[in-house]
């Protein structure tokens, strides 16, 4: 029975991003099956996964081509590493497939197991690059408030999540600027001028730190874990201009945006910029195996491959054969079936249009989104943007009601966030909207609105 698993879980399992003491009291929901876009708990409840796991199962859960590729690979060569002068066949094949689907400046990849490690790798790659071109003083990274780049010490330092920064000391060479969050920080201003102003924070920070000291700017095309912060159209072209003019490397963290989430293969394509490095993870294997990495653009790769000796960095499982087999199969499913292109034409605009209908709901202050993810800001007062309840209680209440209704969503601050698989059809979207709007109704009634 469920209580057996819950008791064992509470006794021995420390969960990520969880209040351990609280969890000991409440326990959690335990999942043991998934199909299409639905997950099932040990009580047999069916829940539409409006979060694609952790924004990773873009193709949902029923993908036999991927699961078969993993098991076949485990029979053939369950492990061999890529250290020193060795390689394994799936890693070679996936590296080539990634070069095919990424923007033209990318011809090299470095594999990791996760997005966090990939961002740690970015720091080392960038520092090495500047050492090799004779600018070793360029060490500083600029990132954004409320960004999420992972939870290792280095990736967590790049991130701008205040909760994480309260618990450990971040790296002293990382600096943060404003996020382009119009609803929270720019209300009353024209969106596009707000976008330009937010981008120019980067220029001001570079001036403050000294251009000769700044190595790179890293950002997610759309901030995901921070609450699906979709930047105004003016934002990214201005960021790119500043990075180019000031000789700062531009890193796009595509861990959530990559592999279709925004309606193109990569978020930088949707927002029209050309990064020098690109972080990926999650949906590269549809979440079925742990795999991440950095696509290294020619500007940096040409220097790193032209001499300078060993790059002293790597992980036992960098380019693990079973993970790479999952990646090869995922890219094949995406390409052979033109899944991203089809979704961008059909289900994504439908999803966004249906979500926009919720903007008339009394507790919804803004609906923002791109491709197949979105956020709804919950408010008490639409015109003043006054939050629904202190301490995110409004969004937490709504999330819990949505889960009770059979829809997994996330609460981020005062927002409800959803990022369902991109293989949803219109009927799936209707089910999602129905379960979400009922949760909004219950929440409004609970807070007397
Ligand atoms: N970068 C972004 C944009 C992310 O959203 C995440 C995870 O959510 C990461 C990096 C970290 O990836 P991982 O959890 O695989 O270490």
Automatic annotation (TrEMBL):
PROSITE patterns assigned: AA_TRANSFER_CLASS_3
Keyword field contains Transferase: yes
Signal peptide segment: none
Keywords: Aminotransferase, Pyridoxal phosphate, Transferase
Cited Pfam families: Aminotran_3
Names of required cofactors: pyridoxal 5'-phosphate
GO MF: pyridoxal phosphate binding; transaminase activity
UniProt entry tagged with the keyword Transferase: yes
GO cellular component: cytosol
CDD domains (alphabetical): OAT_like
Protein family: Belongs to the class-III pyridoxal-phosphate-dependent aminotransferase family.
Protein's name in the database: Aminotransferase class III-fold pyridoxal phosphate-dependent enzyme
Annotated organism of origin: Pseudomaricurvus hydrocarbonicus
Taxonomic classification: Bacteria, Pseudomonadati, Pseudomonadota, Gammaproteobacteria, Cellvibrionales
């Amino acid at each position: 029975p469920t209580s057996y698993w819950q008791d064992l879980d509470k006794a021995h399992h420390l969960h990520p991003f969880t209040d351990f003491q609280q969890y000991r009291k409440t326990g959690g929901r335990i999942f043991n099956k998934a199909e299409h876009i639905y997950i099932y708990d040990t009580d047999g409840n069916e829940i539409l996964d409006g979060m694609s796991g952790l924004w990773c199962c873009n193709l949902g859960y029923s993908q036999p081509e991927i699961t078969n590729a993993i098991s076949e690979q485990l029979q053939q060569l369950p492990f061999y590493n890529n250290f020193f002068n060795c390689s394994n066949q799936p890693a070679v094949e996936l590296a080539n497939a990634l070069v095919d689907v990424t923007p033209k400046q990318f011809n090299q990849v470095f594999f990791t197991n996760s997005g966090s490690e990939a961002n740690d790798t970015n720091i080392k790659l960038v520092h090495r690059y500047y050492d090799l071109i004779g600018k070793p003083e360029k060490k500083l990274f600029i990132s954004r408030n409320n960004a999420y780049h992972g939870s290792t010490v280095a990736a967590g330092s790049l991130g701008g999540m205040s909760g994480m920064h309260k618990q450990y000391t971040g790296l002293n060479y990382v600096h943060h600027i404003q996020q382009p969050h119009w609803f929270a920080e720019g209300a009353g201003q024209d969106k596009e001028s707000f976008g330009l102003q937010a981008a120019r924070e980067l220029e001001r920070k570079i001036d403050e730190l000294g251009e000769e000291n700044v190595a790179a700017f890293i950002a997610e095309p759309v901030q995901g874990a921070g609450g699906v912060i979709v930047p105004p159209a003016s934002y990214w072209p201005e960021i790119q201009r500043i990075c180019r003019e000031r000789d700062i490397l531009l890193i796009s963290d595509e861990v959530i945006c990559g592999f279709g989430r925004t309606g193109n293969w990569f978020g930088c394509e949707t927002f029209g910029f050309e990064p020098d490095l690109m972080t990926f993870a999650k949906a590269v294997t549809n979440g079925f195996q742990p795999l991440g990495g950095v696509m290294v653009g020619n500007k940096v790769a040409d220097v790193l491959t032209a001499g300078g000796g060993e790059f002293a960095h790597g992980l036992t499982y960098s380019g693990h054969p079973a993970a790479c087999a999952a990646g090869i199969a995922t890219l094949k499913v995406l390409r052979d079936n033109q899944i991203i292109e089809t979704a961008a034409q059909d289900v994504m605009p439908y999803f966004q249009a249906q979500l926009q209908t919720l903007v008339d709901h009394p507790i919804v202050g803004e609906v923002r989104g791109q491709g197949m993810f979105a956020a709804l800001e919950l408010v008490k007062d639409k015109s003043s943007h006054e939050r629904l309840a202190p301490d995110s209680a409004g969004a937490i209440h709504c999330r819990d009601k949505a889960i009770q209704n059979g829809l997994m969503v996330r609460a981020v601050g005062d927002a409800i966030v959803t990022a369902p698989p991109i293989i949803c059809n219109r009927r799936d979207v209707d089910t999602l909207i129905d379960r979400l709007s009922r949760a909004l109704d219950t929440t409004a009634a609970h807070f007397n609105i």
